[in-house]
TrEMBL record, chain A:
Protein name per the record: Gx transporter family protein
Keyword Transcription: no
Transmembrane stretches, start-end: 20-37, 49-70, 76-103, 115-138, 144-167
Keywords of this entry: Membrane, Transmembrane, Transmembrane helix
UniProt source species: Crenobacter caeni
Gene3D superfamilies found in the cross-reference section: 1.10.1760.20
Organism superkingdom: Bacteria
UniProtKB/TrEMBL annotation, chain B:
Pfam families the UniProt entry points to: NusG_II
Top-level taxonomic group: Bacteria
Protein name: NusG domain II-containing protein
CDD domains named among the record's database cross-references: NGN-insert_like
């Protein structure tokens, strides 16, 4: 018995899938905006796409945040033609390490810790993962330590600003589940 | 829903402190790169701190032994009676120095910033 050509294979997109897809699309656009903005130091970026990761985390759960974050890394790399380049691996390392920190952080009391906390934690996760990969693989020298303060200051500012933006957006997006 | 919650302030403070610590550690503590060894007022040799080694510097009283290890340096032994320079131990930061006066030998860590002395 062989499957006949007329048999249709259908993929059913659940409402959650659609929401993840649209948030990912939004994150990819913001990642492109990020890449287009001029920066004083390569690697220092506003990280606007992280706002979308936070929105996904708050409204759709941690699994959705992982999807949105990784789809963004993949989609942005495809669109910018940086697939499998060092830049791609740096952004993947940043995304993975920030997700690893967000996993425990998202269990913190929501009453005490808001989006600003999570955004700061994610921002530091990003630079931590990127610097670690850069030190181990791309620039195996302690000379890289000289740039660490610049990245840390950038993460402090972008983490706070992105967190505040995410908090404002979450206010407008009621938490009624999909 | 409030934009900023109490925990956020704590996390921000912690992040800002981390920033300050990193700035202090990476920008103000300039690591020493070379060691200059002086004998009788003249530069005897300038050596790299990247290579572990022992240097025997001949002075009027005998040999002063300078040791370089893991980016640090110290006077390992000296013929002077009071052993002040040996007692100073390891030197790690740029600008630090140890002087063996009777044997007219001194070592100084060279780097971007040179302080005459540091006290904590």
């Amino acid at each position: 018995m062989t499957a006949s050509a007329s048999e249709r294979l259908t993929l059913v997109a659940r409402p959650l899938d659609r929401q993840v897809a649209s948030l990912s699309a939004l994150a990819i656009v913001l990642a492109l905006v990020d890449a287009a903005l001029p920066t004083p130091l390569p690697g220092v970026k506003p990280g606007l796409a992280n706002i979308v990761t936070l929105l996904a985390l708050y409204r759709l759960g941690f699994a959705a945040a992982v999807w949105v974050s990784l789809l963004r890394v993949l989609g942005a790399a495809l669109l910018m033609g940086s697939m499998l380049t060092p830049g791609f691996f740096l952004s993947l390392a940043g995304a993975l390490s920030s997700l690893m920190l967000l996993a425990p952080a998202s269990r913190l009391s929501r009453r005490l810790f808001g989006p600003v906390s999570l955004s700061l934690i994610a921002a530091y996760g990003h630079i931590g993962g990127q610097l670690l990969l850069a030190r181990l693989w791309l620039i195996p020298s302690d000379g890289i330590l000289y740039f660490v303060p610049a990245f840390a200051l950038a993460a402090l500012i972008t983490g706070t600003v992105n967190g505040l933006l995410a908090a404002r957006l979450l206010r407008r997006w009621p938490s009624s589940k999909h | 829903m409030r934009l900023i919650r109490p925990g956020d302030v704590a996390v921000f403070t912690l992040a800002a402190l981390t920033c300050g610590l990193v700035v202090w550690a990476c920008w103000t503590q300039s690591p020493a790169r070379t060691l200059s060894i002086r004998q009788g007022g003249a530069l005897w040799r300038e050596v790299s701190l990247l290579h572990n080694a022992r240097y025997h510097v001949a002075g009027p009283l005998g040999d002063t032994v300078v040791r370089v290890e893991d980016g640090r340096a110290r006077i390992e032994s000296d013929p002077s009676p009071r052993q002040y320079c040996v007692g100073q131990g390891w030197l790690e930061h740029a600008g630090q120095s140890a002087i063996c006066l009777p044997n007219a030998t001194s070592i100084t860590l060279e780097g971007a910033r040179a302080y005459d002395s540091l006290s904590f």
